Amino acid sequence: MNLDKFYRRKISISEVIDCARLFNDDDTDKFAKFPYIYISSDEDESILDLETVCYLDNGPKIMDRKEVFPDFVNENGLDILCSGDVFMDVYDDLDERYPNFTKDQFIDALNYYIDNDDYIEF
Questions:
Q1: Which of 68, 22, 12 has the alpha carbon at shortest distance from 3?
Q2: What integer pLDDT is reported at residue 5 of this predicted model?
Q3: Which pTM does this prediction carry?
Q4: Tens-digit pLDDT profile for residues 77-105
Q5: What are the percentages of helix, strand and coil residues in the chain, rounded to 5?
Q6: Which of 13, 82, 98, 122 is least surrounded by Cβ atoms within 10 Å, i.e. has the fewest?
Q7: Residue 51 in 3-state DSSP?
Q8: Where are the beta strands (DSSP E) in 1-122?
């Protein structure tokens, strides 16, 4: 699935979960292709919910031993919520262990992973 139409525009985490579901069903190399998820630096990333506004874009590149973020990220004062790898790791873990997980469970699992670097148990 091509996610280009979702790049660099306001999108809720609920919509990102929908993208992940479609992306996962598409049987693609999701780890190489699912974009980074960014939020406004004004957002409190410790309080994520389904309506949290975020943006999809490419991850940072390493240039001269420094992370260089996409222009859109810098120009809009965005912070990394998580990489596409992390987002899809959490998604895949839930999908494997709890195939009928809800979006609220995904938010709980993502928050848990961000805080503990581990997968949640329901």
A1: 22
A2: 84
A3: 0.86
A4: 999 999 988 999 999 999 999 999 999 99
A5: 45, 20, 35
A6: 122
A7: coil
A8: 11-12, 36-40, 53-57, 61-63, 66-68, 78-82
Give me the pLDDT at residue 27, please: 57
Q: Strands 53-57 and 11-12, how do they pair?
A: antiparallel
Contact at 8 Å (CB) between 84 and 97? Answer: no
Query: 88 phi and psi, to 5 degrees?
Result: -75, -30
Q: What crossing angle do the helices spanning 84-97 and 13-25 adopt, rounded to 10°? A: 70
Do 74 and 67 meet the contact criterion of CB atoms below 8 Å apart?
no
Closest-CA residue to 50 (of 102, 5, 2): 102
Q: What is the distance between the alpha carbons of residues 21 and 37, in angstroms, rounded to a whole number?
A: 15
- Rounded to whole angstroms, how far apart are CA atoms 81 and 35? 11
